[in-house]
Amino acid sequence: KDKQPEGGYDSTPIPKPPAGTIGYTVKFTFHSASALTIGDLGVMSSDPYIFAQLNTDLEPRHKEDPRLRFRSPTVHKNLNPTWNEEWIVANVPSSGFRLKVRVYDEDPADHDDMLGKAHITVPSLDDNWAGFMKESYKLTLRDSSKRALFIRAVARCFGVVKKFQGEVTVSAELLGRTENKNDGQNGKAYTLGPVRWCRHYSPILGRLANIKEPSEGDTRSPSADKKHQQEVQKYNFQANEFQLPGPVPAELYHRFVEFRPWVKRMFTTTGFQGVLLGKALHHQHNRVYNFSRDTVWGHFPQGPSEEMTKKFLELAHYAQGGRIFTYIITLDALWRFTETGPQISIDMLSKHTMHSDVSIYIAFSGEFFLRRLKHPRRPPPPDPVDETSQRHPPSHQANEIEAEAEDEPPTDPAHYELVIDNDSGTYRPNAQKLPLLADFLAHCLPGLHIQTLDCQADADKMAKMKAAQRDRKKKTGDHVVYAQGDDSSSISSEEHEALDAAEQGG
């Protein structure tokens, strides 16, 4: 038997914490900041957001495990922003934590500049820890952007800025001990909530992927002049992030597969080739998951609910257009996905590596799509309609896949089936863990049917189902039903004309 390359499923358990360690659930609230550094000289303001990292002395399974991090929405053109964003973290150990808070200026066209940072250290926690309420911390300028510092110095000389050092206001509240469910997670801190979603837009990538959206405000019927419809549509590409409630099951733990010598160098950024490839993929990730004025945010403080499932269905377009999505789920339950296709495959060095932002370890990866069912409760959710190598639904009357109609799609989650697989050559997730993935998603997305496919054992069935999706896409077109703004991430009419000419010439 040929030796398999290193990587894929990793059975390393989460290390147990030191004896006597108690895990607590802590809610951090990032309220506001004041007297921030100017990041944009043109408007004498900034587009600030919070980027926080929580460090504890809990031992990771591997040193390459990603850090526990949080990013807030952006407040645009404001040197005294208010966020009031919450981050609830479970299993914070009684040995305390160190919260690193950084404030950045969002710049979609360039790299984001750091405007200042603050470190908050709590040496220990117990049942009587009082936390802290709306404490203000000085933002040190060490390691801040040289450009931002220069602009601030100039602005201070002209009296535009009164203070040289800004502040950030943060709260931390003890919610109690984290429930120990004997799930192997008591040695790992994780994001418990709130459930957050985020949609990113990229017109340039939409052109590359041939993904369009209707013109905002266009009320013509589907039978209207086809030429006019093509003229008013704008190219767009949408990338989605869905912060699921943690924890991810401990057994969902996969490492990149070293199927070529250069792959390891790329993930570890070693050697000239590895540094170049890693940098290129980080750049691609930032281009796809680009934050701008058009980025849309939302959250569900109540956690898993039917409304949360409906939001996922909306992000996946309610099974319209025969779409297939590439996805990864991080170790902190962040679900990233975009529509996939041959155009994107050509443009991306590695789809799953790009989605993971070149993470060495993730929870799971593959592809998925949605099917609309004619009979929503044959069988009851979350059971799948069909039997596969990993899922065996109870006996039920035959169901049918409903064809797309001209009217609005149903919003009841029971009308849809999520078909999700482990088709990822980068991480090669273990097919035996697909039922565990399905159970986790069923908890996060109540009311939805879930079918899992093993990309090897169910290869024929998977190929037929995806071929049917692609045929449906060809027949129905690719009309995205979401409007996009026209600010910093849009492209000019001249660029549209140039791309149109290139497309016609090609």
UniProtKB/TrEMBL annotation:
Ranges annotated as biased composition (Acidic residues): 401-410
Transmembrane intervals: none
Tell me which residues make up the C2 domain. 5-137
| InterPro entries xref list | C2_dom, C2_domain_sf
Q: Superkingdom, according to UniProt?
A: Eukaryota
Q: Where is this region: Disordered?
A: 211-230, 373-416, 465-506
* Ranges annotated as biased composition (Basic and acidic residues): 213-230
PROSITE patterns referenced in this protein's UniProt entry, alphabetically = C2 (PS50004)
Which source organism does the UniProt entry give?
A: Neohortaea acidophila
Q: Which SMART domains match?
A: C2
Note one Pfam family from the annotation. Answer: C2
Tell me the Gene Ontology biological-process terms attached to this UniProt entry. positive regulation of gene expression
Q: What is this protein called?
A: C2 domain-containing protein
